[in-house]
Amino acid sequence: MSQTAPNLKPEPAVQVPKPILYTGRFLQFISTSLAAKYAKRLFITPIKHKMPKREFHMDKQSTQTLMRVPAIEKDILVYSYGESDKKILLAHGWSGRGTQLVKIADHFVKLGYQTISFDAPSHGKLKGNKSSLLEFIASIHELEKQYGPFEFAIGHSLGGMSLLNAIQNGVQVKKLVTIGAADIISDIIAHFIKALTLKPIVATKMKAILDRLFGSDINAVSASYSAKEVQIPTLVVHDENDADVHVSCARAIHKALPNGDIHITQGLGHRRILGSQEVIEKIEEFLLKD
Asked: Mean of the pLDDT values across residues 163-192?
């Protein structure tokens, strides 16, 4: 099912600053291995974005608590928004923050839910400059221990990938929604290296570095691989014109899910989709139907 947004201009992809591009090309000229190490450091370094005004009220009205995640020996900042025994876990994407899904949070708080969201390690208001998908997953497991149980979970981009992995590995929710989630880790790396205007061999060497750190093939935590073992009803939401994560990722995740639905929009891109009333109503319909 597709919905159009004919009056919206396509959302541009995130642009890489020129000094970063020039540094990467210079290192590549010297050594592709050096360029791979440089790219890997960039890959695990989230960008801190200024909170937009539309999120101010959630930031002001939520209860915020630092929570230690023992598995990674790092803190996350937890946002408790609304008051209810019915809780929804919200997971932001890479370089996001705990208030980024504000429109979704507002909608479900009005319906009588409480949302629990978080600044992942080194994101949002937290100090630090390194994080990873594995730290997102560990954070979700600890959130379930300390704030669960959750009725539902909704994740954007890397947050969606993280939730698929966490649910595959035991986190319990009744239904899941992913929005703009990427899929195969090696494809994400290739896309990242292409954005840096570096050679494909740099992507190969960078993945080898990450494989060594992970202890095996890091593709094992790819979204569609985890989705095969996620038995709960799951809605995959994605925009046809997403310039950051290709819509083919959504189709692959949906195909892998034993119990999945898919909703494809047009003209909303990777971030604007989070504020779409049509998308939010679709999520409500999916989560609350029997």
From this structure: 97
Range of the domain at 111: 2-14+65-188+217-288
Q: How far apart are CA 199 and CA 280, in angstroms?
A: 40
- Walk across the sheet containing 152-156 and list its strands: 2-3, 260-265, 234-239, 175-179, 152-156, 87-91, 114-119, 74-81, 63-69
pTM of this structure: 0.92
Name the β-bridge partners of 75.
Answer: 68
Each residue's pLDDT tens digit, 180-225: 999 999 999 999 999 999 999 999 999 999 999 999 999 999 999 9
User: What is the total count of domains within the chain?
Assistant: 1
CA-based angle 57:63:280, to the nearest 5?
A: 50
Please enumerate, as own/partner, the contacts of 64-69 that have beta carbons within 8 Å and a separation of 24 or more: 67/118, 67/142, 67/143, 67/146, 68/142, 69/121, 69/135, 69/138, 69/139, 69/142
Is residue 19 in some structural domain?
A: no
Q: 74-81 and 114-119 as β-strands: parallel, antiparallel, unpaired?
A: antiparallel
| CATH label of the domain that carries residue 109 | 3.40.50.1820
Distances in Å between the Cα of 206 and the Cα atoms of 16, 36, 186, 210 are 18, 5, 9, 6
Other Cβ atoms less than 10 A from the Cβ of 162: the count is 33
Cβ burial, residue 34 (10 Å; 0-12/13-18/19+): middle
